[in-house]
Amino acid sequence: MESFLSAVLGELMTRSINFIINKCFNPPVIAVEDSLQRALLRAEVIIEEAMGIHITNQAMRQLLGMLIDAMHRGYYTLDTFRYEPQYAEDAKDQAVSHFVFLSKLNSATGPYFSRTSARNMGPLREALGRLTSVIVDVDELVVFLMSYPRLHRQPYSMHILLGNCMFGRQMEVEHVINFLLHKQPHGSEGLEVLPIIGPARIGKSTLVAHVCKDERIRDHFSKLLFLHDHEFTDDKLAFREGCGMKDQNSVSKSNMGKGLLVVLELAGDLNEDAWNKLYHACKQCVPSGCKIIITSRSDKVVKLGTTQPLTLKYLSHEAYWYFFKTLTFGSIDPETHPRLTQLAMEIARMQSGSLNGAYITSSLLRDNFDIHFWCKVLSFLRGFVQNYLSKFGENPFDLLNQNRPVQLGRMAVPSEVFMICHQYQRSSQEEVPEIRIQDVIYGCVKTRGKFEALVWRSQIPPYYSYVHTCEIRELKTTGAKRKRSMKGGNKS
After folding, report:
1. Per-residue model confidence (pLDDT) at position 18
2. Secretion signal: which residues (predicted)?
3. What angle is formed at CA 419 by the lines to CA 418 and CA 425, rounded to 5 degrees?
4. For 225, phi and psi rounded to 5 degrees?
5. How far apart are CA 492 and CA 323, in angstroms?
6. 111, 198, 383, 486 - which has most CB atoms within 10 Å?
7. 28: which residues sit within 8 A by CB, 6+ positions away?
8. By CB neighbour count within 10 A (0-12 exposed, 13-18 middle, 19+ buried), where does 324 fall?
């Protein structure tokens, strides 16, 4: 019965899409916009349904990934068309353009005050064509999804779901799980190794911890063991003594005798001698059913893999906007606040894809749901980003992503310089600072010298708290120097 209903729904969906395409041959602006909105809702239904199913077919995962990407691009294009200011495009002075933007923003009327311009129809039509094409491709996927086992999942709203899962990494999670559950051919003696590579703070450890918490993985392996750089290079590897490494995950007695999963986290270069020792120790202790995951910033570990490496990349601009918008507005419909949505798009662009920045700023904006405050935040961010670019030629949020020192400002206390010296993470068992980073940047926290500030607490494994080592200095003004030089000139 379910397969029959799925087939009927798939046929109706295909006919609806064809009808939309035929009607959109030369449609007005409002028709294309509404068609894209309906296609995006249809894509969300398919994606949400697929997220509750364990898909083992790699081609289907790739097709689903294409649909997710097309959905993010579609929402970004639609929101840009609806909320992007068109009235300041021809302004030569950026400062004048900014003030025009704010004044127009406060006086704008109507739900979508930039939709009247027809010259941006090209991107809108392109996004609609791309999305409908992918939906047609996944038409059969809707039917096949019913044949896959469903995963137990609570019905969350999207903003709550994003706070409790890895956004944009669903396909990567399933890729790792399929690798771990894959059974080696009978008689195979080699260990299977999966390298996961990517830049710092992109989520390699979080991805692995998320996978290891999955019940399918915990039922499949009798031990889940973790090694870090300092343990891995130590000649006294605890693993050599009866396979007694640190076991950070307890499993039931019924799983004893099953496989062993070793997770190796590398921050520096690979020590090949230590790797050889670990590899041979794993073979001796668990002749079969042992798998190894290596996470590293360096692509040198690719040669150790027995399968294609998994490379993690930063979120696209479109995916980042979807993420930021969902966190910022929560259960509030952004369409009911078009002027705030326009400001949110500008603020998101300033942050250069920083996930920490998304969590900090979205929390701040939610707590201060006021257009004047949001305008103030945008003006502040735009000012120090442009100032940093003019002085150093780099976006400060790019430096934060690389854990490099950054000099910022304070919105409420412009006479002080705020430095972020170092970033690190603490486990859920460790204490965290009481001072929040958003209260330092945007609030009136009174402190001087060096101190620690809490960035945010992750709600997903491994439940890290992210902390910054900071310093506040008084801004040196040139007025005092000029007075001294003038006095010196008068004396002479």
Report:
1. 59
2. none
3. 120
4. -115, 140
5. 63
6. 198
7. none
8. buried
